[in-house]
Known about the structure:
Helix 7 packs antiparallel against helix 8. The chain has one domain (4-320): Farnesyl Diphosphate Synthase (Orthogonal Bundle), CATH 1.10.600. The chain contains 16 helices and two strands. Strands 1-2 form a two-stranded antiparallel sheet. Helix content is 73%, strand content 1%. The mean pLDDT is 93. It has 324 residues and is an all-alpha fold.
Amino acid sequence: MYSFDDTLRKIETGITKFRFSEHPRSLYDPIEYILGLGGKRIRPALTLLACNLFSDNVDQAVKPALGLEVFHNFTLLHDDLMDQADKRRNKPTVHKVWDANTAILSGDAMMIYAYQLVCETPEKCLKQVMVLFSKTALEICEGQQFDMEFESRTNVSEEEYIEMIRLKTAVLLACCLKTGAIIGGASEKDADSLYEFGIHIGLAFQLQDDLLDVYGNPETFGKNIGGDILSNKKTFLLANALKMANKDQLAALTDWMEKPEFIASEKISAVTTIFNELGIKQLTEKRIQSYYSTSMQALNSLSIDINKASILKEVTDKLMFRQV
């Protein structure tokens, strides 16, 4: 079995070998820029690890894995533009370095390049992988649209939020795992089990991210705490707080959400205090553990020596058990 570091080296080596056309550079420079910002490369690594569960030949999955990573970065590029974000991985976003039109067109080119790479899937399973990838790509668009619509709504339910993050975040993790499994020659049952593992670990991961945004340590979380509160982002925490709040708490939450001007530290403190009064942190932790447990059940159901899946479990545990 390849280690996680082995798979990361394969992915990084593959990315360094990308060669884009020299003309026009204004189209391809932004692509090289965002791919050069780094990132965890978790998605393509999961593809290779899943493939390796069923085959020693992980090289056959490298090009599709790279395609999934390019596609992921394409979604980040367009998300940053739609969110008008200034920074990505502590560097200026593409639309800030260039402009909005360049970000749109370079993102479109990235999506096309991603499809070209995924098309390098072995012939025997090409159609199955392409159908899965196309379905996933469309679902991510659906998730992003829901996320944008939630910005102007105050009545987003927990169920709506979970469906949004399933589409926007979890399905790509699941796609990466199932793609690797298919290429590796897994049975339909095992490939589906890895997909379910990816869905539930993706939900757990996003809820953990929501939790860390309020209760995390900025030094270990990698960004400032309270950003979701300041932007009134409809997270699992806020959706449940609005549902569980008493009359006074609801009035306070609504007031903070409607204030056009405020002192950031005061808003973060006030909303966090209400979360604490309602036990939102404990509720979120319980739901995270539930999704994590379900993901482990799916992983343990694989018809292989479970010890072979230990690396996959170690990688997901590193993601899940970050410092709060």
